[in-house]
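Lab notebook, bench 4. The sequencing result for the construct came back, and we need a structural model before the next group meeting so we can plan mutations. Quick request posted to the team channel:

Model the 3D structure of this chain.
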Amino acid sequence: MKKIAVLISGQGSNLQAIINACQTGFIRGKIVIVISNKIDAYGLVRAESAGISSHIFLRQDFASNLEMDNAIGDYLEDLDVDLIVLAGYMKILTKAFTQRFPGRILNIHPSLLPKYPGLHTYQRALDNGEKEHGTTVHFVNEEIDGGATVLQAKVPIFPGDTVEEIELRTREQEYHIYPLVIKWFIEERLKLENGIAYLDDSPLPISGYAAE
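Done. Here's the predicted structure in token form:
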């Protein structure tokens, strides 16, 4: 059974969706470790409740970001993980880390990339009068939110919507599409070659699949 590591910083709601998908057999893999860079991340409670081991790496315990990422990388290699899943991990990974695990790191970002990389995506979409928003699952490279897109889900923005309403609508989609992409990877249907995502040996378009 393939081994999955999940990196978190906060509530861990996407982590919970992945845990559920593993428990039901939808994802035929095993989460062997949950890593957090925050000692009070509620996702650690979710991991403990599911009987999953966890480990905390705090930035202040290391001389540099590179040293911290090297330590995390060593830890993951010792566990022989097949896939690294970023689920609300609010720390920028170093180039050395992303290059150490090419094609083996996935992230979910709350926008329809390449629109709105970075933070505060819901507010920015609202401020710009967008009619729709969404979320993107993508491979991770050294560029922030810049790796090959695998799957997107769109949600409408209605007149009078608040940031909280858009976020809730978007998160509901995340809980469906992230486990699906992880399932594809674990079943060896999804891979990254030369910066291009392939599903069932066919290259995905730049925007990936769009699930309404």
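Residues 4 and 31 are 5 Å apart (CA to CA).
Will bring this to the meeting.
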